[in-house]
Design a protein that fits this description.
By secondary structure, the chain is of the alpha/beta class. The chain has 2 domains: 191 residues, Lyase, Ornithine Decarboxylase, Chain A, domain 1 (Beta Barrel), CATH 2.40.37.10; 184 residues, TIM Barrel (Alpha-Beta Barrel). Helix content is 28%, strand content 22%. The strands form 3 sheets. Strands 4, 14, 15, 16, 17, 18, 19, 20 and 21 form a 9-stranded mixed beta sheet that branches. It has an 8-stranded parallel β-barrel with strand order 5-6-7-8-9-11-12-13, surrounded by 7 helices. It is globular. The chain starts with 40 loop residues before the first strand and ends with a helix. The N terminus is likely disordered. Bound molecules: ligand LLP. The site of ligand LLP has 22 residues, from helix 10 and helix 11.
C-alpha cells in the first residue's frame, strides 16, 4: 500500500512526520511471534486469544486496562534460562521487573533464585515461600531496617554497594551474632549501548564501587577484615535492554582480573561472580534478542578462558535477568475511547490507561508495537499515536505505529511486551487505579494482582 493513501497522514511519503516507524507492515492482522507471548494467537473469528481465552471475554471479566500474563510462556522462559545455565550457575530473576506472590511461586517451582532490592520485595518473596538462602538483596541505599530484615531472614547474599554499606552490614551482622555472605558490586567502566537512565556500569553514576581507580580493591580489603562479613564474590550489572554481548564480555574480563588481583594480594580465591541482568527483548519487530543458551555459552566461555589465563579456579557464575524472562510474557489490553485524526500529521488514539500503567515511553522514549485484537480488519493502515487519558501531553503509550483506518471506539487494542517495568513502575497519577495482572493458562484466567479500587486510594488518604 502506498503511504499517500493514509487517511489522516500527509499526502506524500517525504513529508511524513518524524518517528521511528518503518513502512506499514504487509499485514496488520498478523501477530509477530517475536513480540507476543507464546500462546497468543488470532483465532478463526479474527479475535486474539491468550492461553485459549479470547480478549473480549477477558475484557468482559476483568475490565480494561489490564495486564495479561501468559503463565505457560513465563514458565518456559524461566526454565530456558535455568537449563541454559545448568547446575554450575545460578539464575536470579530480578524482581524489580515485576514481582507478585504467584510469580515467586512459579520461579520457585522452576528452580530459579530471586534478586530483590527493597524490604517490600523481600517481604513479598518470603511470604510466597521463596527460601531465604535463594534470595540476593540489592540496593544502593539499603536502610538499616532493610539490612536487619535481610540478615534476620537469612538471605543468601547481600550485594554491597558502597564503603558505608560495607561497615553497616558488617555491624548489623555482628550485632545479630552472625556472618553475612556478601558480594561487592563494582562498576567496570563499560559504556552499555542503551538509554542513559538504564546504563549502570560507566563510572559517572550512583551504583557500585569503581574498579578503575583501585576503589574496588580497597572495598575488598575492608570487607575481608570485618568479622561480620563473608565475602563470597564480585558483582557487576552493566545496564538494561542490551543486545550486544561485547559489554558483558568486557565486564567478565575485568571482574576476573579483580579476582586475580585479590588472590595475589590476599591469597583468597573468591568463589562467585555475578554478571547481572540487562539482556534485551523484542519490543518491536526490529529488535533481535539473544537466546538464553547463546548468552550462557558466551559468558561461560569468556569466564573460563580468563580464569585459565589467570590460573584461577572458575568461579560459580550467576546472572539476574528480569526483563528477558517476564517482559515478553504479558500484554496490556486497552479499550479505544476516542480517535482524533490530525490532517497532515497523524491520528491520536486515546485508550483507557496511559502513563500510569506504562511510563516507559515517556521516561525512556521506549518503543512498543500495538495491534487491534478484538477483530481483524482489511482497512488501510493509518499512522497512529496511542495515548492515555492523563492530563499530560507526554502521556504516550506507543509513539508511532499503524492500526487499521476503520478503528472505532470500543475496539480492543493490545500492546505486547509489557510484562517488565510496567506494572512494577505503575503510578496513581490523576488518581488512576492501577490495573490488575491476570495470569492465563490452559483456558483458565485468574487475577494475581487485583485492580486497585477507589477505596484503596481513600484508605491512604487519612487527612
Ligand atoms: N540486576 C541488577 C543489579 C539490576 O539493577 C537490574 C535492573 C537487573 C538485574 C535486571 O535487569 P533486566 O534484566 O530486567 O534488564 N526501569 C528500567 C529498567 C531498570 C533496570 C534496573 N535494574 C526499564 O523500564 O527499562
Amino acid at each position: 500500500m502506498s503511504r499517500s493513501a493514509h487517511p489522516a497522514g500527509p499526502r506524500h511519503a517525504d513529508v511524513w512526520p518524524e518517528g521511528h516507524y518503518s513502512a506499514p507492515p504487509a499485514d496488520l492482522n498478523a501477530l509477530d511471534a517475536k513480540v507476543w507471548a507464546q500462546t497468543v494467537t488470532r483465532t478463526d473469528t479474527g479475535e486474539v486469544s491468550v492461553g485459549g481465552i479470547g480478549v473480549a471475554a477477558l475484557a468482559e471479566e476483568f475490565g480494561t486496562p489490564a495486564y495479561f500474563v501468559d503463565e505457560t510462556d513465563f514458565r518456559a522462559r524461566a526454565r530456558a534460562w535455568r537449563t541454559a545455565f545448568g547446575h554450575d550457575a545460578d539464575v536470579f530473576y530480578a524482581g524489580k521487573a515485576f514481582l507478585s506472590r504467584a510469580i515467586v511461586r512459579w520461579l520457585h517451582e522452576e528452580g530459579l533464585n530471586l534478586d530483590v532490592c527493597s524490604g517490600g520485595e523481600l517481604t513479598t518473596a518470603l511470604s510466597a515461600g521463596m527460601p531465604a538462602d535463594r534470595i540476593a538483596f540489592h540496593g544502593n541505599n539499603k536502610s538499616t531496617d532493610e539490612i536487619t530484615q535481610a540478615i534476620e531472614s537469612g538471605v543468601g547474599r547481600i550485594v554491597l554497594d558502597s564503603f558505608q554499606e560495607i561497615v553497616r552490614v558488617a555491624h548489623v551482622a555482628q550485632s545479630l551474632g552472625t556472618r553475612q555472605r556478601v558480594q561487592i558490586r563494582v562498576t567496570v567502566g563499560v559504556e552499555a549501548h542503551t538509554h542513559e537512565f538504564i546504563a549502570t556500569a560507566h563510572e559517572d553514576q550512583k551504583f557500585g564501587i569503581a574498579l578503575a581507580d583501585g576503589q574496588a580493591a580497597e572495598a575488598v580489603r575492608r570487607a575481608l577484615t570485618l568479622d561480620g562479613l563473608e565475602l563470597i564474590g564480585i558483582h557487576s550489572h552493566i545496564g538494561s535492554q542490551i543486545f550486544d554481548m561485547a559489554g558483558f564480555e568486557v565486564a567478565a574480563r575485568r571482574v576476573v582480573a579483580l579476582l586475580a588481583a585479590v588472590r595475589d594480594e590476599h591469597g583468597v580465591e573468591l568463589p562467585e561472580i555475578d554478571l547481572g541482568g540487562g539482556l534485551g527483548i523484542a519490543y518491536t519487530s526490529d529488535d533481535d534478542p539473544r537466546e538464553p543458551h547463546e548468552i550462557a555459552k558466551a559468558l561461560g566461555e569468556i569466564v573460563t578462558r580468563e580464569c585459565e589465563a589467570a590460573k584461577l579456579r572458575t568461579p560459580r557464575i550467576s546472572v539476574e535477568p528480569g526483563r528477558a524472562i517476564v517482559g515478553p510474557t504479558a500484554f496490556t489490553l486497552y479499550e479505544v475511547g476516542t480517535i482524533k485524526p490530525l490532517e497532515g500529521l497523524r491520528t491520536y488514539v486515546s485508550v483507557d490507561g496511559g502513563m500510569s500503567d506504562n511510563i516507559r515511553t515517556a521516561l525512556y522514549d521506549a518503543e512498543y508495537s500495538v495491534a487491534l485484537v478484538s477483530r481483524t480488519s482489511d482497512a488501510e493502515p493509518m499512522l497512529v499515536r496511542v495515548v492515555g487519558k492523563h492530563c499530560e501531553s507526554g502521556d504516550i503509550v506507543v509513539k508511532d505505529a499503524f492500526l487499521p483506518s476503520d478503528l472505532a471506539p470500543g475496539d480492543l487494542i493490545a500492546v505486547p511486551a509489557t510484562g517488565a517495568y510496567c506494572r512494577s513502575m505503575a503510578s496513581n497519577y490523576n488518581h488512576a487505579l492501577r490495573p490488575p495482572v491476570v495470569a492465563v493458562r490452559d483456558g483458565e484466567a485468574r487475577v494475581i494482582v487485583r485492580r486497585e479500587t477507589e477505596e484503596d486510594l481513600l484508605r491512604l488518604d487519612v487527612g
